[in-house]
Design a protein that fits this description.
By secondary structure, the chain is mainly alpha-helical. The protein has helices spanning about 1-35, 35-55, 60-70, 80-110, 115-120, 125-145, 150-170, 175-200, 215-250, 255-265, 275-290, 295-320, 320-330, 335-350, 355-360, 365-390, 395-420, 425-445, 450-470, 475-494. It has one domain.
Length: about 500
């Protein structure tokens, strides 16, 4: 538990430092220096590359998380596990490359989009997909070695800092838009190279095959987990990106750009949960191997209450500052106000269920997690088809909220009936009430003339009132412990 806590804290610090940089990039600068269709282009390139790279893993990342404990042995290079992982990734990339080249004409030929940008830059999806694939494969391998921080640093902080530099070069006319896009692509490729160098330095990049270790039973298990991982992995990426892809196809790059900026603000809710889920998945997999249900129960309960507290704090801060956010953005982004709220609510639902996906995905019922993901992508596809034509980008955000509500409710129900694990109690309700009180304090605070000062003061009111009430009512032992620790350090320094 100590490792989970330490890496979660480090990951959260890195994530939110990255959030600040990302806010400067996405919230302050990009909407002012790029056209909405140019922002749409950047996001659609990333969206396609993430989906294709996930398919190219052939589901093996699930195998890494679930079955690596059976390979773990540093002295002999973990029985050749990394060789199998890389070989699988390369085969998967060749398959995906063939698929991409086949559908590419349909991707760029969009009658709803008057822009020629995808035709000009669409092929950059290929290197983006390849390096994203390599990074994902090596990052999940690094995580099962109990190091989730490196990947978080590269994805959440390093990339954003480099993008900020790229934006600055474009802003000061040192780069043309073409050079800006090329640099943007290179930046998103760099994490794969850096994490590879990290593994080599740590002596963990050992790719000598050891086929003698592979028993028939183990191979069949790996194939079974990977087959379902292909579907669940694709569905996972599609869930995050299907709305952008469908908006692009149905409405065009302009609306994709507006939606992408609004989506970014809404997605701030989920960012603190990534470090916790990354490291918790490894411990949950080890606990299932030992059939240690008590440890899983503890992780589950703590993940739910702590993620709920953090999610509610960010959500209230976001909604309390919604007018300030729209004031910062150019006028054409005002259409994204409701999008921000619905996307934030949909990610808040993910925070409410904690590490439920990891519990199911690492259990003997891991196939059920795949079925849930399939259901989610079907719901998203249908609801987007229904709501986008009627309500535009707001319809896409509402589709995400409805779909996630249904699937998350089913996940919690499944875990309860199959494992008798239920993480909710009156403290969850108390956290909801406290978030309402904090929002009320923000709501009655009069608007200030300066947007920046208004954000700072309003956010301070929300944060202080929320944390004080959480502490007084002892909603979370971990949160109270951290508050006391920070307070004691401040007192000692004083």
């Amino acid at each position: 538990m100590g490792v989970i806590e330490r890496q979660s804290i480090k990951g959260t610090i890195l994530t939110y430092t990255g959030v600040v940089v990302g806010f400067i990039n996405t919230g302050l600068i990009l909407p002012k220096i790029l056209f909405t269709e140019q922002i749409g282009l950047l996001n659609i390139l990333i969206a396609y590359s993430l989906v294709f790279s996930q398919i190219a893993t052939l589901g093996f990342n699930n195998t890494t998380v679930k079955l690596f404990p059976y390979f773990r042995k540093y002295s002999n290079g973990h029985n050749g596990f990394l060789f199998i992982s890389i070989l699988t990734a390369l085969v998967g990339f060749l398959i995906v490359l063939s698929i991409f080249l086949f559908i590419y004409p349909y991707v760029i030929d969009n009658p709803n989009d008057g822009s020629d940008l995808l035709n000009q830059y669409g092929l950059y999806i290929i290197p983006l997909s390849f390096f994203s694939l390599i990074f994902n494969s090596l990052d999940v391998y690094n995580r099962v070695l109990y190091n989730s921080v490196t990947g978080v640093f590269l994805k959440e902080f390093f990339v954003r800092i480099m993008v900020l530099i790229d934006i600055s070069l474009f802003y000061f006319n040192i780069f043309s838009f073409e050079k800006f896009v090329i640099s943007y692509i290179i930046i998103y490729c760099l994490p794969a190279i850096i994490i590879l160098a990290h593994l080599i330095k740590q002596g963990q990049f050992k790719i000598k095959p050891q086929f003698g270790f592979l028993t028939k039973e183990l191979v069949l298990s790996m194939i079974g987990v990977s087959l379902f991982g292909i579907i669940s992995g694709f569905a996972g990426m599609a869930v995050v990106n299907i709305d952008k892809i469908m908006i692009n196809q149905m409405l065009g790059l302009d609306d994709t750009g507006i939606y992408s900026i609004a989506f970014y603000f809404g997605s701030l809710i989920i960012m603190p949960s990534r470090p916790l889920i990354n490291i918790s998945s490894t411990f949950i997999a080890d606990s299932w191997k030992k059939n240690d249900l008590d440890t899983i129960r503890i992780i589950y309960k703590k993940s739910v209450i702590n993620q709920t507290i953090i999610g509610l704090l960010v959500f209230v801060g976001l909604v309390g500052n919604i007018n300030n956010i729209l004031e910062i953005l150019p006028k054409e982004y005002s259409a994204g106000m409701v999008v921000i709220i619905f996307i934030a609510m949909s990610f808040l639902l993910d925070m409410f269920v904690g590490v439920s996906s990891s519990i199911i995905g690492n259990s003997k019922y891991y196939r059920i997690q795949t079925y849930f993901m399939i259901l989610l992508i079907i719901l998203l596809f249908i609801t987007n088809l229904v709501f986008i034509p009627k309500y535009g980008i707001t319809g896409a955000a509402f589709a995400s909220f409805i779909s996630k509500f249904v699937v998350n409710a089913l996940k919690v129900s499944f875990i309860f009936f199959k494992f008798n694990l239920f993480p909710y109690n009156s403290k969850i309700l108390l956290a909801l009430i406290i978030s309402g009180i904090s929002y009320f304090f923000s709501f009655i605070f009069p608007a200030m003339n300066s947007v920046i000062f208004d954000i700072l003061i309003r956010s301070a009111i929300i944060t202080v009132s929320f944390i004080v009430l959480i502490f007084i009512f002892k909603v979370s032992e971990e949160v109270n412990s951290k508050i006391k620790s920070v307070y004691n350090k401040l007192i000692n320094r004083a």
